[in-house]
Amino acid sequence: MADHICIRIDGEEVTVPAGVTVAAALMMAGVSGFRRSVSGQVRGPLCGMGSCLECRVTIDGCSHQLSCDRFCREGMDVRTDR
Amino acid sequence: MKRKRCDIAIIGGGPAGVAAATRAAQAGRSVVLVDAGANLGGQIWRGKEEVSQPAVARRWIAEFAESGAECLTSARVFATSGPRQLCIETPESVVTVDCDRLILATGARELFLPFPNWTLAGVTGAGGLQSLAKGGLDLKGARIVLAGSGPLLLAAADSFRKSGAHIAGVFEQASRGRVMRFGLGLIGHPRKAVQAAGMTARLMGVRRHYSSWPLRVEGGDHIERVVMHTARGDVSLACDYLACGFGLVADIGVARHLGCEIVERRVWVDERQQTSVADVFCAGEATGIGGVDKAVVEGCIAGLAAAGTEILPAGLLRARHHQQQFAIRLRAAFELRDELRAMPSDETIVCRCEDVFWREIRGHAGMRDAKLNSRCGMGPCQGKVCAPALGFLCGWEEEGVREPFVPVRMSSMAELAE
C-alpha cells in the first residue's frame, strides 16, 4: 500500500498518510469544525468511537457519514459543513 | 438481504466478545461475532498497526482467527426480533443472524458531563481523543489538558505524551486521598500495579491535580483556553484539546431492549454470565466497569457457558471474583462528587443533538417529561450522550433505545420490512 494517499476536503486536494480515519485526516488538515448543529453551532468529534454522531460529514456525496469510523481512500471526496 | 444461522451470536468484538467467541467456537459451536468497528479489538485493543496493539490483544485475536468463529466487522446491529434474531447493517447490505443463544459484549462508553462551552470543537472525550489518535491523528506538539475522572485519564495522558504531545495538566475530580488509597489497593493486582507505576513514572513532569473539574471553556468555534477549579483556586490554561471524560458507563441499550434486568445501570448476570432473559448472556463492561482483565475472564466464562459447558473451570471463577473486587474498588474510588452537578450553567447545552439548554431541562419530573417538553435525547444519538449525564445530574432513569438502535439507510429498513 502507498504511504500516502490523496483525498479532497471541501474541494481542496490534501495528502494524508494511508490508513488514517477521515476524522484524523480532517483534524490534521487543520479542520476542527466538521458540521453545524441544529442551531448552527460548529461541532467536531467528541467520542471518537461512533456513538455521539458529532463528527458527521459528507463522503462521496453520501451525507451523515461518521468520519471517526471511516478510513480514507484514494480520491475520496469529503465535505464538511463548517 | 443475507441470512446467517449459528449456534451462538455475539454482539461486540472487544476483549469480552473475542474471548467469548473463541471459547464457544473451541467448544465446537458455530459462532458469529458482530462488531461495528473496521477491525476486531474494540476500543481498547483497537489500533491498525500491530506495534500499537498489546501482546495480549494480538494473542487473543490470533486465537480467535484459528477458532473457526466467523466475524462480521463494520456491522451494526440495528434491530432484533427477540433474542434469537439480529438485524445488522453492513456497508454493503443487510444481514440477519439467527441464533440459539446470544452473548452481549457491548462494552462501555465514556460519560460526558456538560459545562459551559463543552460543545466547542477541540473538547473531546479522554478516551475519545485516544480513539482519534488510534485512527491516525498526529498529536505531536499539541497542547492537551486532561480532565474528568478515572484511570483512563492517566492512561490517555501517557499515550498522548508518547505521541509527542505537551500535557498541560491532568485534573481528576476525586480527591488525592481516594486516588492514593486506590493505588495502594492495586497491590493485589500486580500487573495493574506495574502499569500504574510505569505511567506515574513516565508522567513525572506532568502536573496532576485532584478535587478539580472544568469551570468553562473559552474560545471561538474552537477551544483556546480552559478554566479549571482546583483546591488551590482557579487555573486557566491555553490548550488545543481538552480531553475530558468522567469515567465509563456500561452500554446496555440492546440488553435493556431485550428485557434483561438492569441493576444500577449494569446488566444483571448470574454465576454463568446468564442474564435474566433465557439464552442471553452478557460479559465485560456491560455487567459493570472493571477493565480489560475482567472483560476477558467474563468473556471466557460466557463463551463456555453459552456453549453448554456444565462445570466451569474453578480457576476462571476465582479470577472473575478477583476482577469483580477490583471493579467495586474502582467504582468507590472514582465516585463522582456532588459539586459536578453544578457544572452546567443555564445556557449550557446538555443535549448536543437537539441543542437543548440546561435551563430547558432541569425542573422536569423525569427523562420522559424532559424529552417530551424539550426534545432532549430525541436526536440521532438517541440520548447516548445526554441520558447518562442526566442520570447523574438529575437522578433520572434512562429510557430504552428504540429500533433502529443506530441511524441506518432507508433501504435497510425497507429490506427488513419485506
Q: Tally the beta strands of chain B.
A: 21
Largest sheet of chain B: 7 strands, mixed
The total domain count of chain B is 3
The share of residues in helices of chain B is: 25-40%
Report the uncertain regions of chain B. none
Instruction: Based on the coordinates given, report the CATH architecture of the largest domain in chain B.
Output: 3-Layer(bba) Sandwich
CATH C-level label of chain A = Alpha Beta
| Biggest interface and residues each | A-B, 34 and 40 residues
Radius of gyration of chain B: 21 Å
CATH architecture of chain A: Roll
**Approximate shape of chain B:** globular
Q: Report the order of strands and helices of chain A.
A: EEHEEEEE
Structural class of chain B: alpha/beta
**Strand arrangement across the biggest beta sheet of chain A:** 2-1-7-5-6
Assign the CATH topology of the largest domain in chain B. FAD/NAD(P)-binding domain
Helix/strand structural class of chain A: mainly beta
Please write out the topology.
The complex is a heterodimer of chains A (82) and B (418).
Chain A: E1 4-9, E2 12-17, H1 22-28, E3 35-36, E4 42-43, E5 56-59, E6 62-66, E7 77-79
Parallel strand pairs in A: 1-7
Antiparallel strand pairs in A: 1-2, 3-4, 5-6, 5-7
Chain B: E1 2-11, H1 15-26, E2 31-34, H2 55-67, E3 70-72, E4 76-80, E5 85-89, E6 94-104, E7 108-110, E8 123-124, H3 126-134, E9 143-149, H4 151-162, E10 166-172, H5 176-185, H6 190-202, E11 208-209, E12 213-219, E13 223-229, E14 235-238, E15 241-246, E16 248-250, H7 253-257, E17 262-263, E18 266-267, E19 280-282, H8 292-306, H9 314-333, E20 349-351, E21 356-357, H10 358-361, H11 367-374, H12 386-394, H13 410-417
Helix pairs in contact in B: 1-2, 1-8, 3-4, 8-9
